Amino acid sequence: MTDIATLSLTEIAAAIANRQVSSREATQACLDRIADWQPHLNAFIALEPDEALKAADAADAALAKGESAGPLHGVPLAHKDMFYEAGKVCTCGTEIRRSFVPDTSSTALARIKAAGTVRLGTLHMVEFAFGPTGHNVHYGDCHNPWNVAHAPGGSSSGSGAAVAARLTFAALGSDTGGSVRMPAHFCGVTGLKTTVGRVSRFGAMPLSHSLDTVGTLTRTAEDAALLLGLMAGADPADPTTIGGDLPDYLAATKGGLAGLTIGIPDSFYVDDISSDTAAAMDATIATLVREGANVVRVSLPDQRQLSAAAQVLLGVEASAIHLPWLRERPQDYGAQVRARVENGHAFSGVAYLEALRWRGPALAAHLAAVTEVDAVLAPVCPAPSPTLAETDVGGSFNAEAVIQGITRFTRPVNYLGLPALVVPVARAASGLPVGFQFIGRPFAEDVLLRIGAGFQRATDFHLATPELPA
């Protein structure tokens, strides 16, 4: 193995378990790449090399005695800096929490850690997870590894950039309005947004309790299945989680595309998209058909209404969470995040309650429209990644319009609480990645992972690795 860091999560976990690679070798391989890439990407907020190597040595010593902590024993990982770990600084990408040390740990993070992982540090993010591009006035902007002048996506910007550049084998992210799916699309990795209630949100920085979900950024759908299997399920600390038996997510990835039906929207998601995105849609459909899937057209309810309702929920709930800081430390917000939080106060109580009330009927209407399909295929964004310069709008009068233009294909999924899996499907003429989302039924992540893995067996877009900038 000439470059350990380029292995997938499942591959490195197996290599360490079989003692073909040591945890120290895997950890050092990541640290070496981080040293090369971090000056270009700014993907990490904090790096802990000495602690990571010490933990890797302990993992190797345990394995030498026949002791394994779990399926990710000795695997080095880093995650978005909004998942609390007791005793560790968690900045949430903001000046307000630069020195915040939680006394509790995220359930999702703890479950992955219990599987034996080694902590590399923490990954960059948009301030308070409230933005789709990767800008951050407090810790500097994060950059896209395919072209550092371009946005990596947000708010899980460091997670997308670090996984794409092979600095970590996988990373946790959050998705409230597209914050897992946007970096997956912009950076050319696999992004899983889970169903609301599938993964505990306890100990993950809240933004909108109606919309927040914990997700993953990985190199493959198989890797996403491995992480989901570790995290999913009921959590007494989060009463919104759903109990009961869980699917075998890894087993689901072994199925093919034959016999599945994929729906293609006849409007909204195919309107006003770039030529690169349109070409990617045609090529993706051709691959699905070639692999045995049945592709049909579907007419979805008005997605613009869903997006507008999501904006109401997000605005009001974020404003409520941030009210104490807005009163006490308004000067410590970046201009864009402060403006967006303050905008939430403009929505009436009636508008908020109507957005909540309509959520159930809207989901029922959506499910009625997709009864004949296993998933819906749609772009994540109308175009590949824009530049950081052209999206550096701060808190200007047109900032919300720019943000809405980027996220209009992701917000409806959050409003409905549905799962979605993004996989790389093409490369644009510019060389930037293009990712599409497969949108599923509630708690049908296993079906999405089956589709994603089948697509990735037939294509190699997920294997592409960016080159270190000169």
From TrEMBL:
Matches recorded under Pfam families: Amidase
> What does this chain do?
Hydrolyzes indole-3-acetamide (IAM) into indole-3-acetic acid (IAA).
**Which species is this UniProt entry from?**
Azorhizobium caulinodans (strain ATCC 43989 / DSM 5975 / JCM 20966 / LMG 6465 / NBRC 14845 / NCIMB 13405 / ORS 571)
- What is this protein called in UniProt? Indoleacetamide hydrolase
**GO MF annotation terms:** catalytic activity
| Domain Amidase: residue ranges | 25-449
Any signal peptide, and if so, which residues? none
